[in-house]
Amino acid sequence: MKTPRTNQTADRLGSLSEPVRLRVLSLLGAEELSVGEVAKVLQLPQSTVSRHLKVLAEAGWVGKRAAGTATLYWMELGDLDTVAAAIWEPVRASLEGSREIAEDRERLAAVLAERPADSQAYFGRIAGEWEDVRRDLFGERFTLEALVGLIPPTWVVADLGCGTGDAAALLGPVVERVIAVDRSAPMLEAAKKRLEGIPSVEFVEGPLESLPIKDMSVDAAVCSLVLHHVEDPAVVIGQMARVLRTSRGGGVALVVDMLEHRRTEYRHTMGHRHLGFRPEQVTAWMKQAGFARATCRELAREPSGRGPGLFAAAGWLESGPA
Asked: Is the pTM of this model over 0.90?
């Protein structure tokens, strides 16, 4: 840490006037991080984060060291002088339990999970070269699109609550047919325009609670970020079971949605009927609908994601994979 100046206490108090800097200190008190990593967690431009780090370093809050082409920052309570420690401790305690800090910690865990273990790869992480090169050469989606190729090409897949066609755009080129269902005519029109070059996608207008699809006519059903909009999610999952068949190795349903959260404003701003779901509730609905096996797992948080955490629940009408 820097040697205290004459007006160090005043400078330190002034440097804490920005809420963003409190979040930065909370992060650096938990983990030594590069500028880029702090920027990812806080979802701010690196230039903005660098400016805040400079203020905190000049006020004596954080230490820094060079690591290859990057600079790493940290805050260690034991490195602070008595006055600074006395200032920070109650501030830190007041931050605990806040939604912003909790979400920062979740994104921090995701950023740390991206760190490779060996020293050569660690330097690559700091330099950031490989991820940038790969993204520049191939874009963001190639891995997902390649993995979709594992789905049998003879399958018929129902995309329920298709919206503007995100799932159908991935599935259409690799399966026999996609039945894209949505109750919103404007959404379906947007999806038709987007997917007009994919002839395997069929568009159907109708409610998910009473699917306009024949019994046992599709191999898989996908419902992505839709259940929180419907009145009775259990009914929709029952409809998924009704339209599935197992004769061609199918009979699988996939539900992706938000974990239970407290963002009540979503009810008013986006018309959400449910504030996410508990994984055990979704798997219980699947078993009630007749799925012989159901699993649910939380999805890793994207550092750039601003919303609640997500889960993926899968159900098989027959035993499915072990």
From this structure: no
